Amino acid sequence: MSSLKNFQEKFKISEMTIFETEYWIWSLRPHQATVGAGVLSLKRECVTFGELKQEEFTDLSNIIKVIENTLELTFGYNVINYLMLMMVDKHVHYHIIPRYEKEIEVIGEIWRDLTWPNLPILSGVELDKIRSEDLLRLIKENLQDE
Q1: CA separation for the pair 26, 111 (Å, rounded)
Q2: Nearest-angstrom CA–CA distance, 70 and 72
Q3: Distance (Å, rounded) from C-alpha 97 to C-alpha 38?
Q4: Each residue's pLDDT tens digit, 18-46
Q5: End-to-end CA distance of the chain, in Å?
Q6: Residue 22 near residue 62, CB atoms below 8 Å
Q7: HEC assignment per residue over 108-141
Q8: How far apart are CA 71 and CA 75, in angstroms?
Q9: CB-CB contact of 15 with 45 (8 Å)
């Protein structure tokens, strides 16, 4: 099995997709480090950042605007962390972690960024089917894709 297929299965990309462009997919992270945490991944097999093509870099800029505008409208984050770790998952991707100075109520729950302003805890809260559907719906309702 390819590293891309393994990656997409691990992060439930097909089930958790929020928005996609020609080259990138933004999906909800199955484990919410903070509410609204996502994964931004390249659609093609690629194991190093240096292998990106110019058109993929250009498209990256476009989808980042969609992500930031949508998450701002949906959750009112204070800062966004983009983490490109690729230690375990050998595929070009970022973990998108909105950060919150104060607690936030979303889908009837109180969410806290327990490590603000330090490094986030990536393991976070595992989403069940209902919470993932509720968060996906909420984010898609606020999608700012210009």
Answers
A1: 21
A2: 5
A3: 7
A4: 999 999 999 999 999 999 999 999 999 99
A5: 36
A6: no
A7: CEEECCCCCCCCCCCCCEECCHHHHHHHHHHHHH
A8: 6
A9: no
